Amino acid sequence: MPPVFYYHPRMLEYDFGPEHPFRPERLARCVELLSRYGIVCEDPGVASDADALRVHSQDYLTTFRQVDELASSPGSFERAIEKVVDLEASPYFCHGFLSGDNPPFPGMYQATMNFIAGTVRAAEEVRDGAQMALTLGAGLHHCSRERASGFCLLDDPAIACGVLREKFDRVAYIDIDLHHGDGVQWIWYEDPSVLTCSIHESGRRLFPGTGFLEETGSEFTALNIPLDPYTTGDVWLDAFRRGVLPALERFRPQAIVLQMGADPHFSDPLGHLMVSAHEWLEAVKDVKKLGLPLVACGGGGYNMESVVRMWSGAILTLSDIEFEDSLPEDLAKNWLMPRFSDPTPPGPSGEGSHSAEIAIRYIQEHHLKGMPTP
Length: 374
Fold this sequence. Notes:
- By secondary structure, the protein is an alpha/beta fold.
- The protein contains 13 helices and eight strands.
- It has helices spanning 25-35, 49-52, 58-71, 76-82, 91-94, 108-127, 156-165, 182-187, 233-251, 277-289, 304-318, 329-335, 353-370; strands spanning 4-6, 41-42, 132-135, 171-175, 194-201, 222-227, 255-259, 294-297.
- Strand 4 (171-175), helix 8 (182-187) and strand 5 form a beta-alpha-beta unit.
- Helix 1 crosses helix 11 (304-318).
- It is globular.
């Protein structure tokens, strides 16, 4: 029996507008494609304040609701900002709601609760005994305890780690998004029961400007592999296998949260890594082969064609459903997307190996020696 896949159309309400790169259509297309292979969606319901309060502060949620109320009345948010004497001291600024990445929209609070519900329910499912539970919503890994950031208004992967900790003594978070999973890292930074692993384009070049080797936590349970721009997929996958997998072996987690951002792909407009869909999927397979209870969610991915192929392929792979490379004929024609695989290779191999080797050596010298073992 395949693992449960959580989705409901209300999750598409998390929508910053037609000009914003975080487009709900990504999720809708994946669900349409997956339905052709027998994936049945289960309604996750709606997340609650109690879910958010596992990792977020009450002050943050209060400000979030205030911004929502203002955004629901035309011009109210702008008028409220005009009355603020010191913007940098205002709760709107302190909690990240003046960022252009996170433009307020009517109903944003409830839309966010709808969006993260799949991850929360998947974590509860695994906590309660399931081997695996899946969703493609959310993966909002940039939101910290008290600040919205990078399209992320709540942090569902961090919440999922908290849910799993109700049953498991050690939980690992694995982030294969283009961007550093900073929000999850900082929320769990000083808790040695949660290992956070992120492989990403270096913060020296890319948002959020974090995720450096020295960000380890007091017991080396924060692990980062920052890679140079234009690092190719062979180097990316090798770094994942030589960095993340040995750390997991030492830490010995009892359950895993996997954030499946598809934006490391070479076609993604917001980054500069050169990872192919095949190489990215190999990392997903590596996590699956660990045989541990697993919660998997979505994340970034801003090229519509590549993110739909990659996410759908990941869900089918995790569900043990075999699929041919070619897509159903009508979808291939309508979406101009004939195959799951990449039509052209991303270019020469071996690029970015210098930064990858530095990261691997650092992990070997620090994390694999200083990380606590059970």
